[in-house]
Request: fold
Amino acid sequence: MEVLKNYINGSWVDSRETATVDVLNPANQEVLGKVPYGKNTAADVESAVESAAKALDEWRNVPVMRRVQPLYKLKQLLEDHVDELGRLITLECGKSFAESKAEIQRGIENVETACATPMLMQSEFSENVASGIDEFMIRQPVGVCACVSPFNFPGMIPFWFLPYAIACGNSFILKPSEKVPLTMMKVFELIDQLDLPKGLVNLVHGGKDSVDALLDHPQVKAISFVGSTPVARYIYQRGTANGKRVQAQGGAKNPVLVMPDADLEMTAKIIADSVYGCAGQRCLAASNIITIGDKKGTITEALLEAAKGKTTGFGLDEGIEMGPVITPESKRRIESLIAKGVSEGANLLLDGRNATISGYEKGNFIKPTILENVALEGEIIKTEIFGPVMSLIHMAAIDEAIDFVNRNNFGNMACLFTTSGLNARTFRNRANAGNIGINIGVAAPMAQFPFSGWNDSFFGDLHGQGRHAIEFFTQTKVVIERWPQEWTRKF
Reply:
């Protein structure tokens, strides 16, 4: 089977590394491709950086109105190939076809937002800050920028960064997850059709060796990352130690509060979609579900029925709502965490372990699972499971629940379901999380807003998307000018 190539200096080239790992379909373990993986991928990074640095010299001086023109064409190409890209995501990542297409749409929205860079880059001018002196600020490119993207959204997350970086005048290197490289391979086939300088946008494969090469290379000035918290912390520490700008999105343990006055039917459906969508493998998946004042168990029963109604299987099959988790190792880890929750005293209200899907017996399937009355001082309550597992907790009052939310080491998202405006205002004001949802199960910001995150869910200052992306991929220069009249030549 063909070994995937790198895209460097406008051409598809073989890696210097001969060792490979398999790209597997998580639904049946079919080998989809082989990706270079080993120490020699660092040499590939060196070539990509060299090409990106050369392209930068030309591109940074291209007017911003011209820099965004290829993005309009890229948006159209992505729209034209959305079904093909969605199918690739499902094959290598496992999510349902509908989820995959929705992911591509989110990426397209970021390309569209980046087309507004001519306005978003505009800055301030002050005339006569002192007698005869003007002062103004301009934004200039940072330089060679790189992104290390995760497996769970192979078609969306690179677009939190790539279009903004090049619109701001930078060059760019993408290192996709070795688990799901095929989607970005197709995207780069589309990028190859754009009128961009050779070397401006590059793709290199590999694992930790490639990442470390990017983190250590003196010509790489900025690093964007999305993944688990331990790796995000590592990326941030090593990158900043080398003087780089870093934005590193980490993990989560997202709490959702359900008030007694919430619309029961709507709430149960939305929460089930949040917990079990993408098989729970997203950083905005609801995890700790806190019912408040549910003395009769009506909220619990509604959540249980909504979870039971989810259809699990191969994402390209008709009517499938939830696919497999990414690897057999992930499946074993998630199932061991379910057992850990039970050993800590939780009631296994719904057990999705040992799931078998007809025709896909080798798949990494776990069906929807609910752990009720999870120990508040245990490991499961604070561990990112990253799988289709709901931890159900019962509390008496909203203040108690908000205090619990704020003890969370993570801070990616927190949501509240209620019909009370006062409760909603109290929650959004007090909850310590970067993305807040009110009657929303996945509080994913639109492209014009930053993908926020607090505490151990984010390392850095400026997030992906929107105006934060423009600020991250530019550096400010303040100019102070004086032009005395006596210096002006008389005609």
